[in-house]
Amino acid sequence: MASFTWTLFFVGLCLKVTQTEASSWTIKMPSSIKGLPGSCVVIPCSFSYPDPGKKVTEFNGIWIEMTDYEKFSYKGNAVSITMISELNTIGFSIKEEVTEGQSVSASCSVAHSCPTSPPVFTWSHSGEEHVQPQQLKDGQWSATSTLTFQPTSADHNKPVQCTVTYKGGQHHKTSRTLKVKHAPVNVKVEHKSEVKEGEAVQLRCSSDAYPPATSYQWHNETGSQLHRGHDYTLLKVSRHAGALYCTAINTIGSGKSNAVQLNVLYAPEIAEASSCTSEGDMVKCVCISDSKPPSMLYFVLPDRVLPSTKVEKHGSVTIGTLHAELGSSVALCCLANNTIGNANLTLSLPVNSKMLNLYIIIASVAES
Ligand SMILES: *[C@@H]1O[C@H](CO)[C@@H](O)[C@H](O)[C@H]1NC(C)=O
Ligand SMILES: *[C@@H]1O[C@H](CO)[C@@H](O)[C@H](O)[C@H]1NC(C)=O
Ligand SMILES: *[C@@H]1O[C@H](CO)[C@@H](O)[C@H](O)[C@H]1NC(C)=O
């Protein structure tokens, strides 16, 4: 057996039994006692002796010596102290499965030899703790700590741990994983981050629930039910599709996701309002495109392609402006493209104002 350098404190606890029952030299104490190195042992003992005929007030000695009285040795009743090298196992009890919000008690108990400095319990979970000491036989004691708390969904599948620290610093711990029945939480709509308009998109309702969610409902923002089931397939998604959310339901309750708005991508559409106006010798063309993602806008002449001189973006609307001197051209084409597709629209150029004046002069001359 290993030799311990730990100190073992021991305390003798001898109680004199009442005189009336006492008639002979007898002693009651355990023949052996187990102690943890570094901790202490308390040896319980009770003895009796023949009636001395007078009052005995003082006891002392190694262990017992009574002043003014016949001496007696109880050395036949030696107690041996055994050092234990392994810590006593911790008894742990908790209901395996609990329900969120309902009070649950976990208890942790351990046998020890040191009632004057009993083991200290530390719990991994907060709650109301209550410690109950108890005397066993042969110098052994037990201490039980009971923790009462209200578990939440966050405690599901998490360990509840009890740590026992003995006088002298030795400690050990034990834990149990808690199953907490709870309504669905972290309810989310899973879907592709982007979807092209007109395509099908599959939505899935995910959640953390115990027991697992067994039914799902889908609603739009006004609360109308759209579908029931874990998956919801929108066959032809539209850019105008409103936000929607899902609700997951289990035997405990239900949980709702945040509203999700699909990111529906579509090719450019050029607004009929796009046009060109003249500004002196210059022409100003404005091309307005609606698309997602926003478009790039070009102005195409028969012989060249001009990029916009100014581009503004307002959500899905892109406004490209061209300021240029276009000479004798009569039409140009506005071209819009994005990752989904492209569109074009022919814009007529205003008749040059100097030329217009000339036509008026010619016309009036012709009339006269
Ligand atoms: C929700 O759905 C109902 C029924 O399909 C429909 O009448 C209503 O306009 C929708 N509301 C929104 C905001 O999309
Ligand atoms: C749009 O077209 C131009 C010219 O063909 C090309 O360089 C550009 O990458 C296109 N943009 C997108 C978003 O497809
Ligand atoms: C303009 O669009 C039409 C179809 O809408 C296409 O046939 C034509 O090639 C396009 N023009 C340019 C310059 O992209």
Give a written overview of the molecule:
This protein has 368 residues and is mainly beta. It has four domains: 75 residues, no CATH class; 91 residues, Sandwich (Immunoglobulin-like), CATH 2.60.40; 79 residues, Immunoglobulins (Immunoglobulin-like, Sandwich); 89 residues, Immunoglobulins (Immunoglobulin-like, Sandwich). The strands form nine sheets. Strands 17, 24, 25, 26, 29 and 30 form a six-stranded mixed beta sheet that branches. Strands 8-10-13-12 form a four-stranded antiparallel beta sheet, with no helix packed on it. Strands 9-16-18-21 form a four-stranded mixed beta sheet, with no helix packed on it. The site of one 2-acetamido-2-deoxy-beta-D-glucopyranose (NAG) has 4 residues, from strand 31.
Q: What is this structure's SSE topology?
A:
Blueprint: E1 9-16, E2 26-28, E3 32-35, E4 40-48, E5 59-60, E6 65-66, E7 80-83, E8 91-93, E9 97-99, E10 104-112, E11 120-123, E12 128-135, E13 141-149, E14 159-165, E15 171-177, E16 179-190, E17 195-196, E18 201-210, E19 215-220, E20 225-228, E21 231-234, E22 244-249, E23 254-256, E24 264-270, E25 275-279, E26 282-292, E27 296-300, E28 305-307, E29 310-314, E30 317-324, E31 331-337, E32 342-348, H1 353-367
The structure holds 2-acetamido-2-deoxy-beta-D-glucopyranose (3 copies).
Organism: Champsocephalus gunnari (Mackerel icefish)
Domain Ig-like: 85-179, 184-263
Subcellular location: Membrane
